[in-house]
Amino acid sequence: MLFTYKAINKEGKEQVGDIDAINRDSAISSLQQRGMVVVSVADSMEEKNIFKRNIAFFDKVSMKDTVMMSRQLAALFEAQVSAVKAFTLLGNNSENAMMRRTLNAVATDIKGGVSMSQSMAQYPEVFTAFYTNMVKAGEESGKLTETFLYLADYLERSYELTSRTQNALVYPAFVVVTFVVVVVLMLTMVIPRLSEILLETGQDLPFYTKITIGLSEFFVNYGLFLLILIVIAGVFLWRSTRTESGRAHIDKFKVDIPYFGKLFRMVYLSRIADNMHTMLSAGIPVVRALEITRDVVGNRIFGNIIDDAVESVKGGESISRAFGKNKEIPAIMVQMIQVGEETGSLGDILETLSRFYKREVNNTVDTLIGLIEPAMIVGLGVSVGFLITSILLPIYNIAGSL
To answer: Could you give the residue ranges of the DSSP H alpha helices within 36-169?
Structure first.
């Protein structure tokens, strides 16, 4: 967003201008870091347009955009392009509105004397804590080019893992929705008309036909109330997921659900190993690496495990011993980390673990797809067939007795 500011600069003179930032707080922070005393900061006339603000509300930066940006930054730094010019160039050429504003704001901050990592930390909507800490390590070690390549590779692996897991659930969800729509349409539109014919004959109906007709009458008479109840339950569930306790219950459900829980566990273990490997390779201290991993692992159960490990490592324990106290961490992972600690090759061991769990996730997803697809198709066919048979069979009996 573009903000108009009025401030007192280092020379004690009043200065008026525009600054590009994600929000008002970020704009104020950027000005203060340049040594200015902020008098006022307000939306520019362009951003006061309601329509444009509504469009900006939907602006988001995808992981794919961040991967591409990281690779481009690495290439520009390798070509000896200055940080200010690199961020300005990428910002002006970015198709994503939020990415464009953020990169230009970072360029402005760097020009004002703020470090790259400090500036990025002001925009958590684009740069995660993991990302900014990796950049900070790159600045301190003088290996920014390698750091951005590391980040691009890591984000690409994470994107692939997450996408594959999510895509595995798309087809089953489509089949379930199709099944529900077909059954509801049959119960509310097809079966009521056919059941009228059966009831008019006065013949004794099979029990399964009575069940079908009863379900049809229920959906016709109370379908609207059922829909309202489902919507209310959905809203309540959505609101509960916005609370700490609600998210904690969902995270626990993810790792406890049969079979799928195994998949989620391996996703989180792969994420832990990959995060730790990437940060330790960049020279980030173990405790800080664990703290950042806790924030980005994406599950409170494993986040609490890492929290406990942080306290144990601060107390002088090894990572393997700290992880070994929790049953959620597999023994094989604990033993391999222990070997890595003893041989001084922890980074390589973590990379091996990351590849191992990623491969296990891919195999599990392939197995799930192979089992779910035919099972759901058969289930859909049997259910629809039952509904049709329970109505048409009595009709055929009537026709045969005439």
So the answer is: 50-57, 63-78, 83-93, 97-111, 116-120, 129-141, 144-168
What CATH homologous superfamily does 62-156 map to? Type II secretion system (T2SS), domain F (1.20.81.30)
**Architecture field, domain 169-402:** Up-down Bundle (1.20)
Classify residue 93 as exposed, middle or buried by CB count within 10 Å of its CB (0-12, 13-18, 19+). Answer: exposed
Query: Please, what are the averages of pLDDT over each run of 10 residues along the chain (402 residues)?
Result: 74 74 70 72 54 47 83 86 89 86 88 86 83 80 80 79 72 80 84 78 78 87 90 89 82 85 87 85 84 83 91 92 90 92 90 88 79 79 81 74 59
Exposure string for 139-165, b = 16+ CB within 10 A, e = fewer: beeebbbbbbbbbbebbbbbeebeeeb
Strand order across the 14-20 sheet: 14-20, 2-8, 37-43
